Amino acid sequence: MRGDRLEVMMHLDNTLADTLPKLLKAPEQHWQPADYLPDLSTEEGFEHMRVLREEAARLPEEILAVLVGDMITEEALPSYASWIATLDGVNTQGEPNTAWGEWNRNWCAEENRHGDLLNKYLYLTGRVNMKEVELTIHHLIKDGGQIETENDPYRTFVYTSFQEIATRISHLNVGKRALSAGAEHLYDLSRKIAGDEQRHARAYMYFISKIMEVDPNEAVLAIHDMMKKKITMPAMYMRESGSKIGDAFKKFEVLATRHNIYTPHDYISIMSGLIKRWGIEHLTGLNPAAEKAQEYLCTLPERYRKILNRFAARDQKAIDESGPIEFSWVLPQQEKLGTG
Questions:
Q1: Among this protein's residues, is 103 annotated catalytic?
Q2: Which of 96, 142, 151, 280 is the least crowded, having the fewest Cβ atoms under 10 Å away?
């Protein structure tokens, strides 16, 4: 990483240290998965589980598959955390400790609850082949990923700003589909997870805003570099047992688009929102390279919209004609627990 970027990270560490109390809460003040799951040490807990299973039985199989994909993405958290832990200037281990490292550890702890909650929920539904799900999680962590941030905190925080918003949209829309199917319990926990993702997105957007205050040229170049690439989700290497790397993620993307859970329109909306949030259009005094990047960024969302509109009918037809999409994760009707 450029030496001046490392200097910026070290400079902003004190600012972050002062802000952390506003970004973080003590574990005892947070919700935990047990707050939304049946307590099987009580009779009431078994009744809670019965209602949960009745509601989950109403979920369409394709929505259930998207939920599983979201859960698998969350369960691979250790690999995502390790990306940030190795960033220059973060220094999450050793002395002196940094505010960046404290943020990363707390962020990981908060995110860890999401996979725990969804995993246990899906296990209790009796509709999921947990062995196949566990194999996919194992493969995903083992296979890793490539988010193309080049160990650079600037690029990484642009990526996490985008990714956290995308995850929020996915969880929230799964919750809405669940509610429309009568699965109110899943709606509640999906909203709770989405709330975390929104708060985390605000934190990462704040980090980029502070970086822009002291290093606007390099910040704009980092944003330009990430937006010019296709920002992919961290689970892009997701696969089922016996399949090729990324095959399950491709199917997952089709289902998410088909059911309007996360679509190319959402992608463009996030991009446009971040460019506006960081005030790219109104920056002045940039060097020639950053000015060129600024011009590119300000016109990028509209270019994407034109391309999307041009091929919308073709792409929708391909999705409609792709037929049913099956995953080894979801049990066929006759294999569901509690059915005849």
A1: no
A2: 96
- H/E stretch holding 329 reads none
What is the Cα 301 distance to its own chain's centre? 21
Of 48, 139, 185, 200, which residue is the catalytic one?
200
Let me know how long the chain is.
340
DSSP state of 330: B
Q: What is the pLDDT of residue 340?
A: 38
Of residues 98, 100, 103, 114, which has the active-site annotation?
114
**Contact (Cβ atoms closer than 8 angstroms) between residue 251 and residue 186:** no
List phi, psi (to 5°) of 130. Answer: -65, -30
pTM to 2 decimals? 0.92
Residue tagged 């506006």 (tokens): 276
Residue 291 falls in the annotated catalytic set: no
- Reading the block at residue 297, the tokens are 């960024």
Could you confirm whether 70 is annotated as catalytic? Answer: no
Q: Is 164 among the residues known to form the active site?
A: yes
Active-site annotation holds for 321: no
Nearest-angstrom CA–CA distance, 107 and 98 = 14
Q: Of residues 42 and 320, which shows the higher confidence score?
A: 42
Query: How far is the C-alpha of 262 from the C-alpha of 253, rounded, in Å?
Result: 8
**Contact of 161 with 205, CB cutoff 8 Å:** yes
pLDDT of residue 134: 97
Verify whether residue 75 is a known catalytic residue: no
Structural domains of the chain sorted by starting position, each given as residue range(s) with its CATH number in brackets: 3-323 (1.10.620.20)
Catalytic one among 13, 55, 62, 74?
A: 74
Active site residue 197: yes
Q: Which residue type is seen at 8?
A: V
The mean pLDDT value for 245-263 works out to 94
Catalytic residue among 55, 62, 110, 196: 196
